[in-house]
Amino acid sequence: MKKLFFTLLVLVSSQMGIAQSLEKMQWFNEPEEWEIKDNSLSMFVTPQSDYWRISHYGFTVDDAPFYYTTYGGEFEVKVKVTGDYKQRFDQAGLMLRIDHENYIKTGIEFVDGKFNISTVVTHKTSDWSVIALDKPVPYIWIKAVRRLDAVEIFYSLDDKEYTMMRTAWLQDNIPVMVGLMAASPDGKGFKATFEHFKVKHLPDCRRLEWLKKNAEE
């Protein structure tokens, strides 16, 4: 009966165009404590967990919680993130992942007592970019748009005005795991909540161009 309810919920949600059904997603590195309620995901982030490969620090880790679904082609994904950040590098946001050597994680990160908008892009090795916020924020919206071989990343404080923070390469024409990520590399874990998670399919740019050039007279 529960499975039937979730199936009906997914069908209704898709017809109404509301948020992604979290019940159909799956865990990579499932945390010990998590809950789905009112189509939001709350978790207690696994202590001393992260995603990083080699560069600068000299180690590789791939063990933080990641709750995901898989999409092919081009899409837009966004989510509202709230966290009880405590220790250096506590973080929460989105991740787009092909495999353990190719992924993008982006969201809010607590560094040196300040809130930062953070992105790590990994292709064999990881890089890290941050934008420091001038004050603490109760929550943040993160949005990523995958078009061809590029991902554009934005943040917003109100889900209305979005600011671009990064454009990164990601191989196109290959399925991508996309979902909700949180990590606590230095800390003992913290509570993170993800609301209004939504993935929207975007028509393929190359196909649209072909259709335009080959339109019927």
Automatic annotation (TrEMBL):
Q: Which segment of the chain is annotated as a signal peptide?
A: 1-19
Q: What keywords were assigned to this record?
A: Signal
Q: Which Pfam families match?
A: DUF1349
The record ties this protein, via InterPro entries, to:
ConA-like_dom_sf, DUF1349, UCP022704
Which PANTHER family does this one have?
REGULATION OF ENOLASE PROTEIN 1
The protein's name is DUF1349 domain-containing protein
Organism of this sequence: Parabacteroides faecalis
